[in-house]
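Progress narrative, Year 2. Work on Branched-chain amino acid ABC transporter substrate-binding protein from Caldimonas mangrovi advanced from sequence curation to structure prediction during this period.
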Amino acid sequence: MLALAALLLLTATLVAAQPRPVKLALIEGLSGSFGNAGEAVHRNIVWAVERINARGGVRLPDGPRPLEVIRFDSKGTTDEALSMFKSAMDQDIGFVLQGNSSATAAALIDALNKHNQREPQRRALFLNYSAVEPSLTNERCSFWHFRFDAHADMRLAALMDVLTADLAVQKVYLIGQDYSFGQHVVRKARELLAQRRPGLQVVGEELHPIGRIKDFLPYAAKIKASGAQAVVTGNWGNDLTLLVKAAREAGLDAKFYTFYGNALGVPAAIGAAGVGRVLAVAEWHPNTGAPASDAFYTSFRQRFPRSEDDYLHARMQAMVEMLAQAIEAAGSTEAAAVARALEGARFDGRALGGVHEGRMRAADHQFIQPLYVSEMQRVGSEGTRFDNEGSGFGFRTVRHVPAAQTELPHACAMDRP
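Result:
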């Protein structure tokens, strides 16, 4: 009995000696129609956390602590995301990560505002890596929410610069998912096109149910019949992959101006038909040409060697790095202290080997960063060293927008605790 008691005491001592992890709740659709997009995000977050933990974790006054990612599967629905949010709060997790759906992000912001007001001793922060509907850092801004992706108007401005400069394009078709983000992209694209090239014709607008269309051929046929030479879409996940696949099958001879056309199966789905015709906009892509960028991307591919796991975004890496930086600056994991440390914080890219940079604008919690518009090409062609997802097709830069030029005015009137 004495030996057993000693063993139990030793085990308890060892457990107590282990530093408590700083938990991050990833609330995302990890199954269902957009499960591939959720799992792709999870890989990015895990890789960022692994690198920080390899450095010893986050340094706090009582000693270093590791980060830990806790998965919460929202199954792609807002109701389930809110249920998962409650579970995360019940577990006293102080940092919530989400992004794949602006409608879900808006609901989480509202829920978090109420939770933090109701339970000030258990407040949490929301770190958003890809919900880009502009109101989230404008009219619906919150002290407890930080967006690390360029919002839709910032991305669209870069895309429309390239589209309107292409004088061969006279007719444009707008198509998007029928929810807040998709609706906004269609509306804002129409507005920007009218401002920048009044002579351009918008020959069609379409909103379709999100995540429910399995056959986009009728949509592709309608676009083809319109005579459109360019298509603008904010579609993501399978809704984009299936759309461009249908365009190829329909023989649609048009350029696609997309937010997310360089990943999640899109290059392989459209194949050679996409060369010089599919464009995407992002804060970074593998073929920027900088040695640091090459090393960064190569390291990720060594960690996740399967071609279907090829989905790396610098903003997600910057987000986790900046969270760790803010926790250390605050000397605490308390939500309000970390939020104040994030406000105005700069990211110089050193933690990523010199890749990416930006600053968190304090007034609205919108991350200001460079953007690249890139165009699909065959791997090995000029400016296209790396392909995407083993498809044989990659993207080369056609326009680089420095961070200062991406910045737009905001309409945030933030309440601070």
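The mean pLDDT is 94. The chain has two domains: 20-150+311-368, 153-282+370-406.
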